[in-house]
Automatic annotation (TrEMBL):
PANTHER family: 3-OXO-DELTA(4,5)-STEROID 5-BETA-REDUCTASE. This is SDR family oxidoreductase. Residues 66-355 form the PRISE-like Rossmann-fold domain. It comes from Hymenobacter aranciens.
């Protein structure tokens, strides 16, 4: 049977890589957004507002997806608003698709904040889970929009009879412009500014992150897991962690990232140096760099998400993610993390996004 995918967030880090993976495997693939991009060959853009049911009904009138991939969310100032808005987005989309009776599987991407807590109470001391993080760990006793999104998927699955999968990546490394959570590109831009200005490439985060074990998720790896789970019986109605499969220490990786850019690496010196402060006055500098090197994006805000990078690198604990569950179910994709960063840096340079 022909497979038709609908990706929510097809222009983001995860969605764009997923679109390319699906198209390479011969899927008919639609990308839904309020202002969809059409820069991926073969991807059919769908313009709709997930918070406007009538908009969805109109936009999806002639589309009957067999598989739905939810890779996008909207950030608001409070977790209560995050829950209200992001829950409604999932609910509205699945309700609009329900009369078609075409959906066989829905995949939802959330993340490790499932275990570590939402932005308002993220990784607070005294409520930190043991690592490695495992899928069977119970929900935290706090409001979390990830839980609200999951519950909307569960309710729609019970109503409409489709299967589901939940995917929990760590920090996602991949190319996307204008993304709110983009550690890899943020570090590339920061290193480029350090190179151009002669500043040291200063570790911004905590001692626990500098010295502890960590992992990340290559966007290409989560794309493969999403397709695997959508087409594998053993993966139905399950939640899966998804990371590259290796562990590293930032104290090991940081000098290697610096060497790629030819800048001086400075490690943890007993004090945190958040990138929000370090890069607070760098927008004019980046514009000058972009002009001098004929870069494609002169707006620093479209490339760097210092706030989220600080959130990741400033945690008071090491963070490791267990991958046993999906390995046992048959997913064996592995990616070396050092290469994830270097591949991204080379792609950013090829796309004229960094000098």
């Amino acid at each position: 049977m022909d497979k038709t995918a609908l990706i929510v967030g097809a222009s983001g880090i995860m969605g764009s890589n997923l679109a390319r993976e699906l198209l390479a495997q011969g899927w008919t693939t639609y990308g839904l957004a309020r202002r969809p991009k059409s820069d991926i060959a073969g991807l059919h853009p769908v313009a709709a507002d997930l918070l406007a049911p009538s908009s969805l009904t109109t936009a999806l009138a002639e589309i009957a997806p067999t598989h739905v991939f939810l890779t996008s969310w909207l950030r608001h100032d409070t977790e209560a608003e995050n829950i209200r808005v992001n829950g409604a987005m999932v609910r509205n989309l699945l309700a609009a698709l329900a009369p078609k009776h075409s959906v066989q599987h829905v995949a939802l991407v959330t993340g490790l904040k499932h275990y570590l807590g939402p932005f308002e109470s993220y990784a607070r001391a005294g409520a930190l889970p043991p690592t490695p993080l495992r899928e069977e760990m119970p929900r935290l006793p706090v409001d979390n929009f990830y839980y609200a999104q999951e519950d909307e998927v569960y309710a729609a699955a019970a109503r409409d009879g489709f299967t589901w999968s939940i995917h929990r990546p760590h920090t996602v490394i991949g190319l996307a412009v204008g993304n709110l959570m983009n550690l890899g590109t943020t570090l590339a831009v920061y290193a480029s500014i350090c190179k151009e200005t002669g500043r040291p490439f200063q570790w911004p985060g905590s001692g626990a992150q500098w010295n502890g074990l960590s992992d990340v998720t290559d966007a290409r790896v989560i794309a493969k897991q999403l397709v695997w789970a959508a087409t594998t019986e053993a993966a139905r109605n399950e939640a899966f962690n998804i990371v590259n499969g290796d562990y590293f220490r930032w104290s090991w990786l940081w000098p290697r990232l610096a060497a790629w850019f030819g800048v001086e690496a400075v490690g943890f010196d007993g004090t945190m140096h958040p990138l929000e402060a370090e890069m607070a006055n760098d927008a004019p500098i980046w514009q000058e760099i972009a002009t001098r090197h004929h870069l494609a994006e002169p707006d620093l805000r479209q490339l760097a998400s210092a706030w989220h990078t600080d959130l990741d690198l400033g945690r008071p604990i090491e963070v490791m993610t267990d991958m046993s569950k999906s390995r046992q179910a048959g997913f064996h994709v592995y990616q070396r993390t050092e290469d994830s960063f270097f591949d991204l840096f080379a792609q950013l340079r090829a796309e004229r996004l960094i000098p």
